[in-house]
Amino acid sequence: MDFKEGLKLALQSLWANKLRSVLTLLGVVIGVASVIAVVTLVNGANTYIETKFSSYGADVFTVSRLPQFITSAEEYERLQRRKNILLDDYRYVEQNCKHCVGLGAQQATVAKVVHGTLSVTDSTIRGYTWQMASLQNLNIVSGRDFTATDEEHASHVCIIGSDIQDNLFPGTDPIGQELRVDGAPYTIVGVSEKQGSTFGASQDNWVGVPLTAYQKSYGTSKSVTIYVKAGSAGAPLEEAADEVRVLMRSRRHDAPGAENSFELDTNNTLVGFASGITKSFGAVAGGIAAVSLVVGGIVIMNIMLVSVTERTREIGIRKALGARPKDILMQFLLESALMALVGGAVGVIGGVGVAQLVTIAVGFPSTVALWSVVMGLIVATATGIFFGVYPARKAALLDPIVALRAD
């Protein structure tokens, strides 16, 4: 019996027991769908993280009071004792760093934005130094960016995200118009490019104002984040980072041998840390999903054993007509492998669909990886073959005389 004939017989057998085949597939479908959904969401999160941090450029790093990611309550409590990074610290680094090509600083809070009778709540208010647009690759689609004069004079001008434009200035050009942030008036000079939403939160509900104007409204005591641009990635980045580290330790009087009282993060550090978290999450979720595959494989083995028992006489007739043990083995292995492959295909479609529904419902990013689709089909087929070996071998070893006597 050749492979083509064995495949035809396997299809006929599965089609003859449609309901049983469908019920048998459920375990494999659930397992593969779980794996594909998890991998798709993890890939989406990794892609978002890489895109988010790489938008600053590979040669940009940050200096902040707290790290981007805190992994325990004890660590958070310890880090809260750190002194704030103030605008004077930023000025000190700006004046003394010789390897820094560009520097900027930022603070942020949440406030209500009002224009006439319209308002937007929970808007992010960003206080920028005038260099921040270039450091963050902020694209101004209408109007202009901040200037050094705006910062020097604490001008009440602002740049807005597209959500502010859509909600407060529908159908009109917002450039030159006024809005109020926590009661303080600002004139709009620029509109930023639309960035969309991530993890269910809009990235366009924000207002950027000069940092000096921001601090007049919200005070100067809160910590700022410093952004530093080196000449390029590689050695110049390390040199600039080392120089800034020395300047900050000197400025903050960190004792020799003591840990830094601030956090210096490069894009690679942040991306690596975040990717490690998502991979760990994916490994745990994948392990749980693998249990479903094992259960599905056991169900396949059980059904194939039932099939062997039901078809004992058929097996005896095939052997009497000249079928070799390896022909019987191939027939039953093809049935279990085909059953698992179909379940894997349905699981792949279902997993991608679940991931897309999560993206639509809560804005969690998802990216379909071709390797995960191929791997899902391979793993499903391998599961069917592995758990189908015992029933197929049992069928192949049946004595034809005994098999022909079966009812």
From TrEMBL:
Gene Ontology MF, one: transmembrane transporter activity
Ranges where the ABC3 transporter permease C-terminal domain occurs: 288-396
Subcellular location: Cell membrane
Domain of life: Bacteria
Record's keyword terms, sorted: Cell cycle, Cell division, Cell membrane, Membrane, Transmembrane, Transmembrane helix
GO biological process: cell division
Entry GO CC: plasma membrane
Membrane topology note: Multi-pass membrane protein
MacB-like periplasmic core domain boundaries: 21-245
InterPro entries per record: ABC3_permease_C (IPR003838), MacB_PCD (IPR025857), Macrolide_Exporter_MacB (IPR050250)
Signal peptide: none
Any Pfam family hit: MacB_PCD
TM stretches of this protein: 21-42, 281-308, 329-362, 368-390
Primary location class: membrane
Family of the protein in this entry: Belongs to the ABC-4 integral membrane protein family.
PANTHER family named among the record's database cross-references: ABC TRANSPORTER PERMEASE YTRF (PTHR30572:SF4), MEMBRANE COMPONENT OF TRANSPORTER-RELATED (PTHR30572)
UniProt name for this protein: Cell division protein FtsX
